[in-house]
Amino acid sequence: MASSSSNHLKNIAVVGASGNIGSYIVSALLAKRCFNVNAISRIESKATFANGVTVTKVDYNKPDTVVEALKGQDVLIITMSAFAHDAQPKLIRAAADAGVPWVLPNEFGMYNTEEAQNDTIGSSKTKAKELIESLGVSSWLGVTCGFWYEYSLSGGSYGIDVAKREAVFFDKGTQRLNTSTWPQVGRAVASLISLPVSSLDAYRNRMLYISSFALSQRDMLKAVQRATGTTDSDWKITSEPTKQRYADAKEKMKSGDHSAFVKALYTRYFIDEEGLYEKTHELANEKLGLPEEDLEEATKAAVELQKSGYWN
Could you tell me which residue ranges the NmrA-like domain spans (predicted)? Predict the structure, then answer.
């Protein structure tokens, strides 16, 4: 139940509140001016948080501290590294023990089919949702936003190296996929949990899909060129067969090359329109009141992120 007699959620616990996506979710929640935001932080963490955020320290080796931190919370939002496999089940069990009615598990990325997700991430996300349901206390809300646009573009994961002015097209570079900016994901989460509890039933134990843009690599490169005042002649442009690129990355992962994970993850979603989830799933942008975004501004943000030394 909600924390008050109203039909709205109020107390929101966020794990990873100072992180890449967590900080944008927190900003969007605070902008609503109707939530009490509680950052759940490891006891040894030195992270700092926005004004207006309550900080509660926990020790994951002492489950009681996590349960205590989550008592009275209406929602638990989990944002963390895809490799933090051990923490999420602990948080989910603690949420059930504390009676938290809603959990947003560590999604906030690309999803279309279980097959594609399990090919790359593995079954950990599926198991997290199954665990929430099996405990019989909380319900989950899954937010699929595609890969983060400014993050993925600035870091070269979309095959475009802004610093070196090199682009590798997967096949012809014309396959589109859905992608979202950090601010749009934050707005989506805040809008979702601002809905009346009675309206949230429509999304109970279901994935919800949002998107900022549906773009091909060629679309992205043209946007980067506009942002940097360059043309094709300023860039080294090559191509690779998408399925071979994916197969090569998977082989490297099997041999223990962890750096190949990102290459495999991104390439997988350029195969068979797997990353263009708007073709098979209705987008919730309009229902959540999300604004249409400016591709030029988002691309400039990606270019500036690369220039800022973020990836160093």
Answer: 10-140
- Tell me the pLDDT tens digit for each residue of 114-166: 777 766 666 678 899 999 999 999 999 999 999 999 999 999 999 999 999 99
Q: Render the chain in DSSP notation, one character per residue.
A: --SSSSSS--EEEEETTTSTTHHHHHHHHHHHT--EEEEEEETT------TTEEEEEE-TTSHHHHHHHHTT-SEEEE---TT-TTHHHHHHHHHHHHT--EEE-S--B--S-HHHHHHHT-SHHHHHHHHHHHHTS-EEEEEE--EEHHHHHHTTTTSEETTTTEEEEETTS---EEEE-HHHHHHHHHHHHHS-HHHHGGGTTEEEE--SEEE-HHHHHHHHHHHHT--GGGSEEEEE-HHHHHHHHHHHHHTT-TTHHHHHHHHHTTSTTTT-GGGTS-B-TTTTTPPP--HHHHHHHHHHHHHTTTT-
Q: What is the pLDDT of residues 228-258, one digit of tens each?
A: 999 999 999 999 999 999 999 999 998 888 8
pTM over 0.90: yes
Q: Final residue of a domain: which of 192, 209, 226? A: 209
